[in-house]
């Protein structure tokens, strides 16, 4: 049996696959994002999630053949790497596991743990790819000075466009009225109170504005179309940088997949596809499995077992 753990900013998902690829357990628990909740609480939540998943599968943790723990912010705080690498031993009672960043789960799920690159564009943005056993990430620097092409980045761009249009520094477009209505503004300057005071700059709420931009773009709004086209260009830059870092042959056709809410936008996905067509050689594929299934699939690969998950 193979355990996959996909940690995220809002929840932690657990999946156990058996040797035939059948799903024996799928459970969810609270976020294990240690930068927000602390290491002790993160470890407690992961331990409970493993216990719950194993209970559903009818096994004990020490019976797991192998496990992969995809943890948010793994590798981004060097002072805690040793602790993150060692705490699963206490949970499992053995050393048959590996830890890594949660972006690995997205790659393994979207491409079935095959060579290629996965682009994640949700609240933040990051890419992860593998070539001949070597993995590399690009992006994921956070909303203050990174996360280009993400929902937060799109939402922030919309707020910037709103201020410029309100001032007259740019001609008004329907996005101005759509944001005013969505935020229930009495006057346009009320947006300062909403975003900075009521929301306290909350990244999730700002990221939620990406849906307003997508709706406006679908109606032909030029400002929104510009923002989404630029988001697609930024995501394509992540992809090309990852390809170069992985040293793919210049003539190789590299498999590319995607995950995250931004790609639910038809406009972004179509614009991203056009960016890829400009080269070098890429093949855009729809994601095969969810990230948590990818985590379990990757656990099997680490143990030397090639599985085809049966998720239906």
Automatic annotation (TrEMBL):
A Pfam family that the UniProt record links to this protein: BcrAD_BadFG
The ATPase BadF/BadG/BcrA/BcrD type domain, residue ranges: 3-299
GO MF term list: N-acetylglucosamine kinase activity
Gene3D superfamilies from the UniProt entry: 3.30.420.40
Protein name as catalogued: BadF-type ATPase
